[in-house]
Amino acid sequence: MNQSKEMFGLEFEFSCSNPSEETKRISDLINSIGIPAVFKEWHYTDAQKLWVCKPDASCGIEVCTPVLERGHWGDVERVLEALSKDPIEFDESCSVHVHVDFDSPDNSWSSVRLCSLLSWWVKFEHIFVDFAVPWRKVNKYCKCIGETFLFDHDEKVSLPRAFSKLSDKYLTMNTFHMFNRRRSSVEFRLLEATKDFSLVEKWVKIIHSFVDSCKKNAPPENYTWADPEDFFSFVSMDDDLKVWMLERLISNSPKTPSFFASENSSASEYFRIKSLRDFG
């Protein structure tokens, strides 16, 4: 499958009692392992070429990567390894944000394709929310679009209308920066705070796989919830990644099928894929 060529960036949030002091210290830590980083007061970071550390009122501090090229992680693993040895902590208010840029070099993102991305996220949001740890599901800085009544289940949404409706920065997926003409990126906010590179890498792969699938599909006919099988039929990913996501879905989902359209169907899909992986 042809992959999209979008650039992306990451924000890692941490909690602390003295943001200015800790932000400077973390900036110095990253510089100490030979990776250029700067300490700045809070601002919107746009197209930076260095790591940026800054205070954040919602959590404590924020550590932002440079702009990254898809498939090339730069120094993310090294920085997270250094942070994992540092006492800096995170709590349930913190998270990891993924920004995917849609001003692609091949100019392949038409308005229809971008509308498809926004619409399919709304359609499948409950699957992504089930993937999330319990405290992210109720975080006020990561509001579920499906709980906001922004869309009717059978509504056909134009791109300008989708842009406007999803421009709230604190939605699970939002067009805040694009809508405000700051930069051409969409933000995904569901992943919990972590220093684990493997977790971040897998989540970003899922986001990129979802983006690829949206790019080659028209917007959905409606916003009624779909089963996990529908999601995995829509999103192409390798079996190992699919099993990992299903394990997370089952682990983090409510014990009653309040989010899953069919709890049994997710379990059967999990065991089907697991058997493929284990026994070929």
Characterization of the model:
The chain is an alpha+beta fold. Helices cover 41% and strands 15% of the residues. It has 10 helices and 8 strands. Strands 1, 2, 3, 4, 5, 6, 7 and 8 form an 8-stranded mixed sheet that branches. β3 and β4 (60-64) form a beta hairpin. α3 (111-131) crosses α9.
**Count of individual beta strands:** 8
> Span between N and C termini?
22 Å
Helix content: 40-55%
Tally of domains: 2
The biggest beta sheet reads: 8 strands, mixed
Uncertain stretches: 256-264
Number of helical segments? 10
Which percent range describes the beta-strand content?
Answer: 15-25%
**Overall pLDDT score:** 84
Decide which structural class fits the backbone: alpha+beta
Overall geometry comes to globular
Tell me the radius of gyration.
19 Å
Q: What's the SSE pattern?
A: EHEEEEHEHHHEHEHHHH
